[in-house]
């Protein structure tokens, strides 16, 4: 009885959508489905009538007529929906594609990942470290000598760099003073 009262209060368009669903064999659905179909239906009608109005104005007519609406619907169908290719064409494409054998898999256990150069997490920079010292020695001033309290350590680092130019580079962090 309650279902019958709901159907009496339902708008005519909603009743039409409900009867269309029933005619297609859809018996079990949420009530929101009818509202979504109505929204889609109204949006489609507004788009078609807007296009028909543009066609009517282009033709110099004062009002929209049946030909304008037909033209708008036809243009909507031509640009919105596409027909799939014939079955024979799809079978021919499938046969051509299936002639190419699949590559042999050489993957071991685990997830197959692309090479490092193709990933976003690989380093994208290189450090250029000179192998030789400059030809002319640079004279240090007193300020530079005071800034580097251990020059022997710097010479030792330079020797290591010359022996192995592909070594990682690290920079000592200054010690923080406790407050």
Question: Would you kindly provide a written description of the structure presented here, covering whatever features stand out?
Answer:
The chain is mostly helical. 2% of the residues are buried. It has helices spanning 2-9, 12-23, 32-59, 66-80, 87-98, 142-147, 151-163. The protein has a domain at 2-96: Orthogonal Bundle (Histone, subunit A), CATH 1.10.20.10. The protein has 7 helices and no strands. The model has no long low-confidence stretch (mean pLDDT 78). Residues 137-146 have a biased composition (Acidic residues). Keywords: Nucleus, Transcription, Transcription regulation. Residues 131-179 are annotated as: Disordered.
Give the end-to-end Cα distance, rounded to a whole number of Å.
80 Å
Q: Which fold name is given in CATH as the topology of one domain?
A: Histone, subunit A
SSE topology string:
HHHHHHH
Biggest pleated-sheet summary: none
Strand percentage: under 5%
The low-confidence runs, each spanning 5 or more residues with pLDDT under 50, are none
Tally the beta strands: 0
CATH superfamily of one domain: Histone, subunit A
CATH architecture of one domain: Orthogonal Bundle
Helix content estimate: 40-55%
Radius of gyration: 38 Å
Tally of individual helices: 7
Shape label: elongated
Oligomer: single chain
Computed structural class: mainly alpha
Task: Give the rounded overall mean pLDDT.
Answer: 78
At the first level of CATH, the class of one domain is Mainly Alpha
